[in-house]
Amino acid sequence: MRDFPWWLVAVGAAGLFLFWEVLASPLYSDILRKLSKGIWITAMVAVVAYAFACALGLGLALMQLSRSVVLRQVSRLYIEVMRGVPIIVLLLYVAFVLAPALVDLWNWVAGRLGVEPVRARDFSLLWRAVIALTLAYSAFLAEVFRAGLQSVDRGQIEAAQALGLKGWHRFRLVTLPQAFRTIFPALGNDFVAMVKDSSLVSVLGVTDVTQLGKVIAAGNFRYFETYNVVALIYLTMTIGLSLVLRRVEMRLRAQAG
Q1: Domain ranges of the chain
Q2: Residue from 167, 161, 142 nearest 62 by CA
Q3: What is the Cα–Cα distance from 58 to 152, expressed in whole angstroms?
Q4: Fold of domain 45-206
Q5: Which of 26, 68, 131, 146 could form a disulfide with 61 if both were Cys (CB 3.0 to 4.6 A apart)?
């Protein structure tokens, strides 16, 4: 009984009570119906940005472990800069500085190639937010991947070399699978954090759950009820995701054992 998840019972009871309030109250039901339109935006931003961040983070980790001094220094510079800038500042910078600069660069190239130029407003704020979250989280994930890759026993790599496996095959079949089991809890934790930090995209006007909550509360002046539902949605997403990730972690641990 000492390891019984009493915290989950407490959270579940509070969640059931709030869900009951939502179902029983027309006001809560109306707020949830309006907020549900933003759930898909929140999920899409979190999943797409995290997938891109994982790919970029893995590349940065490999650059840090490279024999090339230039690649190592470039990777370290990127990681330190991105980790040193608050995510909300990075969101604003990407949205209003980097994105227009990229549009200008594209139009400069398009003018010489005879391609039709684009307007800055055609660059969706949603994708600007995805790019910003990708850049921010890739720096943290790079350190996670680096630690995982370095944790693989050298003897495993030497054994793969003895079997005649080339560099890419050693990485794909030996190094990465073992590193993934080690770093899976950290990756899962960062994914949960990404779901929460996706709420920051509301500063750009992206219609996620948080932005819709602000709009609804400003319209009905029922801040208590509105933000109760907003918090309930995020808690449901993050706690549900945490439970799924914990189950997957236990399965990976059982397979490794």
Answers
A1: 45-206
A2: 142
A3: 15
A4: MetI-like fold (1.10.3720)
A5: 146
Q: Which two tokens stand for residue 16?
A: 């059931």
Six-digit token pair at 255?
């397979």
Q: How far apart are CA 63 and CA 58, in angstroms?
A: 9
Structure tokens at 23: 């179902």
Residue 243 has pLDDT above 80, yes or no: yes
Residues 36-64 pLDDT 10s: 889 999 999 999 999 999 999 999 999 99
Residues 6+ apart with CB under 8 A from 181: 252, 253, 256
Alpha carbon distances (Å) from 45 to 142, 194, 195, 216, 236:
20, 9, 8, 21, 17
pLDDT in tens, 123-157: 889 999 999 999 999 999 999 999 999 988 888 77
DSSP per residue, 50-68: HHHHHHHHHHHHHHHTSS-
